[in-house]
Specification:
Length: about 170
């Protein structure tokens, strides 16, 4: 085997080291700078992305806190408005109830007044009819026509007798 021959082996190693060195210099001069530049640029972009993500996360947390604060404020305002509306509705209901009570009382008083007036009018009508009937009866009984003074006296007597009969 020629590769294990010492004279040939040492010469082969020399050429391997020399070709490796040349390849390394060529790579160092032409391949590594763009690769390292790409890696550096990629590292920079990753750092910027992480920093931007941190900024966005911080902004999102701040906006979330602002939103929660606004939500709490809106909730408190809604509760205040709701309580005010309930109080107003209760006050309006009480005012309506009071107005209805007043109107009902006034209607009752008006009805009582009308009933009293109608009762008095009916009593007066009954008195007038009773007087006329008493006069007619008296005319028939007496057989003659009565003058106004007789009418009045007989009406008063009839009314007095009706009033006494109602008392007993």
């Amino acid at each position: 085997m020629p590769q294990f021959d010492t004279h040939f082996f040492s010469s082969l190693i020399f050429w391997e080291f020399l070709s490796f060195g040349i390849l390394f210099l060529v790579l160092w001069k032409y391949a590594f700078p763009p690769i390292l530049q790409t890696l550096d640029e990629r590292e920079r972009k990753i750092k910027e992305s992480l920093e931007q993500a941190d900024r966005h996360r911080a902004e999102a947390e701040q906006k979330m806190q602002e939103y929660e604060a606004k939500l709490k404020t809106a909730s408190k305002e809604a509760e205040t408005v709701l309580a005010a509306a309930k109080d107003r509705a209760q006050r309006i209901m009480e005012e309506n109830e009071q107005r209805l009570r007043t109107e009902t009382q006034r209607s009752k008083e008006d009805a009582a007044r009308e009933i009293d007036q109608e009762r008095r009018r009916a009593i007066q009508d009954i008195r007038n009819q009773t007087t006329e009937m008493a006069l007619l009866v008296a005319e028939k009984v007496v057989g003659r026509s009565l003058n106004d003074a007789d009418h009045k006296r007989m009406a008063d007597e009839a009314l007095a007798s009706v009033a006494e009969s109602r008392k007993t």
